[in-house]
Amino acid sequence: MAAEALSWNPESFETDVERRPDGSIILRPRKQLGDYPARALDMLEHWARKSPDRTFVAQRDATGAWVSLTYRDMLQRVQRIAQGLLARDLSAERPIVILSGNSIEHLLLAFAATWIGVPYSPVSPAYSLASGELKKLKYVLDLLTPGMVAAFGTKMFERPLTQLVAQDVEIVGDVPSIGGRKVTALAELEGEPGPELASAHAKTGPDTIVKLLLTSGSTGDPKAVITTHRMLCSNAVMLCQALPFARTEPPIVVDWLPWNHTFGGSHNLNFVLFNGGTLYIDEGKPTPTGIAATLRNLREISPTVQFNVPRGFDALAHHLREDRELRRSFFRRLRACLFGGGSLAQHTMDAFTELAIAERGVRIPMLSGLGATETGPAVTFTTPDCVRAGVIGLPAAGNIVKLAPHEDKFELRVKSPSVTPGYWRRPDLTAAAFDEEGFYKLGDAARLLDERDPGRGLCFDGRIAEDFKLSSGTWVSVGPLRAKLIAALSPFIQDVAIAGLDRDYLTALLLPDLAACAEFLRVPSISYEQLSVQTKLLQVLRERLQAHAAQYPASSLCIRRAMLLPSAPSLDNGEITDKGSINQRTMLRLRSACIETLYEQNPPDHVIVIE
Q1: What is the pTM for the complete model shown?
Q2: Strands (E), 416-527
Q3: What letter would DSSP give residue 72?
Q4: Exposure pattern of 224-254 as b/e (b: 16+ CB <10 Å)?
Q5: pLDDT digits (tens, 9 = 90+) for 212-264
Q6: Residue of 463, 230, 263 whose CA lies nearest to 378
């Protein structure tokens, strides 16, 4: 698909470049950010007036049938629930915490709270369903001091609700009681909207807190990112300007990405809301078992935009090749794909291009960018003309980007109306997050794709906190090396953790794609424990790593030893995120015994040794 087919205006990303004497580089978009509403839910009112009967959100019920709410229905339900919330003692000091995942009920309660200016906090279900002591969830509840805790599919959350929620905190859910405590049904909250509701809504504005979004907390306690209407509204307009076709063609989105993450809960949800689109809540996940639900949904619902993480697109590409019905439905009205949360392998990009041309006769752009929970989230976007693994594009209108020298890299920093005012009840962390000019420090490294032509965009250059030095003093840039290794070991490996701090050479822990490995070995399924004795697979991985070492012989790029993870990565312990990507530092810490094995003088047979 040509850029013109997307109604793409290349001038949208023209950027002025300032090079400062201290070595920093400032990138300023020439195009101004358009006007944005004072409140995110102003758009719900807008579409309830303009297209009242259009479906806003849909979800499958227990029978598999789609249940939906129109824009008019959504507004009415939100206002009725908001009326009931007014009778509770709720505020920023006593917000609403939602423990369960994406659902229509979750969205109704969240929007009702937003309507009257009560912050809510969507918490990863993994915090509640962890098999351990629920330490992260306890920390979160102590930090937020909620006045109400909600969990839909309530029975699953019995342990955290009965063990951690204070007796004076109301529980909202879908059972009459749990553990001897009354549970309030969502319908019980509803009341007839009165003048006090209009008054409470009128007091909300750009700086009102909408939600407190938690960082993963994988390297420490979670931080609660203050997320305001100004952040969400300005960022949504940035996205509208980056994908202008959505203004005339209301988007249809089938999405599994969790709302406790900024990608799913801020970026994607508001893209649908601001453009009057329809969101189909996908109960699937990009896992060997979870992908089946996603495939079922995509056979029925043809999206106009597909959002996903790299792992999701990797899995989808495999099934699109094999399933003609899925391929026809998926590409039928698709205008663009957009990924976040990591770098997409070039072979996956190429696969989507090949499949799209075969099915539609046009190329579907695979777009990306870079952002963070603290930035609302989007900072940069790519364009259809810049499709290459690792490229993160140029700053969106409204964002001023600074590349600040850090060691031998540039740290990416941003100043924007979509940047958070700070972390809830942590002024120390807030102060440390901004530089002397007020730029938020993302902790990501970036570099110009072409020093002579900054207009070609930026490349992701890893997480500064992940980089380390070998014993020789040589810096290892982990992010770009991980991307190279994933590409080299595709499709057998979906992620890599790289070790070597203060060591003589690099080693790696390999996170396998079990489905791809099973297909290669011609077995129905295979476990982590079984993989380590599969000599045929180990030999292929050795050959791939040998070829990589021959191409990249430098000590900062060459992997000398590797091993497959002997057991599944732990979501409970933070080794892997909800989105399926490895947390490098946590995995290396928890798998220290594996790392020691990699550096043994005479390693066991399951260790892949590269000459």
Answers
A1: 0.87
A2: 440-448, 458-463, 468-469, 475-476, 493-499, 506-512
A3: H
A4: bbbbbbbbbbbbbbbbbbbbebbeeeebbbb
A5: 999 865 456 889 999 999 999 999 999 999 888 888 899 999 999 999 999 99
A6: 263
What is the CATH T-level fold of the domain 467-609, as seen in this structure? GMP Synthetase; Chain A, domain 3 (3.30.300)
Token pair 């020691």: residue = 596
- pLDDT: is 474 or 332 the higher one? 332
Tell me how long the chain is. Answer: 611
Which strands sit side by side in the sheet containing 120-122, from one edge to the other? 184-185, 170-173, 148-150, 96-98, 120-122, 209-214, 224-228
Q: Where in the chain is the domain with CATH 2.30.38.10?
A: 1-37+371-465
Compute CA distances 477 → 239, 323, 448, 483, 499, whole Å. 30, 38, 16, 11, 12
Q: In whole angstroms, give the CA distance from residue 378 to residue 233.
A: 12
How many other C-beta atoms lie within 10 A of the C-beta of residue 431? 10
Residues 6 or more apart whose Cβ sits within 8 Å of residue 220: none
Residue 89, classified by CB atoms within 10 Å of its CB into exposed (0-12), middle (13-18) or buried (19+), is exposed
Distances, alpha carbon 6 to alpha carbons 10, 271, 365, in Å: 11, 16, 9
Residues 152-189: tens digit of each pLDDT: 999 999 999 999 999 999 999 999 999 999 999 999 99
Name the one residue in this structure whose structure tokens are 């490895």.
Answer: 582
How many angstroms separate the CA atoms of 519 and 51, rounded? 47
CA torsion sign for 229, 195, 112, 223 is: positive
Return residue ranges of the chain for CATH 3.40.50.12780. Answer: 42-204
Residue 512: strand pairing partners: 493
CATH 1.10.1740.10 at 42-204, yes or no: no
Pairing relationship of beta strands 25-29 and 252-255 according to DSSP bridges:
unpaired
Cβ proximity of 307 and 257 under 8 Å:
yes
Edge-to-edge strands, sheet with 366-367: 305-308, 336-339, 366-367
What topology does CATH give the domain 1-37+371-465?
Luciferase; domain 3 (2.30.38)
